[in-house]
Write a structure and sequence with these properties.
Number of helices: 7
CATH topology: Serine Threonine Protein Phosphatase 5, Tetratricopeptide repeat
CATH superfamily: Tetratricopeptide repeat domain
Helix content: over 70%
Structural class: mainly alpha
Largest sheet: none
Shape: globular
Number of domains: 1
CATH architecture: Alpha Horseshoe
Order of helices and strands: HHHHHHH
Number of strands: 0
Amino acid sequence: MKRTLLSPILASFSAERVEIERSAAAAWVAYAEGKEEEALKGMRSAADLEDSSEKNVAMENRLWPMRELLGELLLELNEPAQALKELELSLQTARNRYRGFYGAAKAAERSSDRLTARAFYEKLVALCSHADAERPELVEAKAYLAQN
């Protein structure tokens, strides 16, 4: 196999990406084991590392932004106000994400911030305006909007 100048860059990117994913997986395992502080610390570490990592569109292949996962964990830990902050941060860089809009709406709703919840549910419904399926989160968003 012929080495190129890009090989060290790809290796560095891959090692960093693996560490981010490892840290996130360990955080969720800790959460499942009831180690909430350890879970939060690990997920924050993964989110911060991802935020500080060098970005390259050609090499970017995230399935789930770590900051969004941090928001999801904070929701699980019943910290909706903090979850909303993290989810809004995630949506600044990972725009128009279904799970990001839904998570932010749930966090706002659980924080009793009806205006923000409504805004995120509206974005979720708009994002899916041409979808041919009704996912549970979308059904929930439409029900919330009909009531509020």
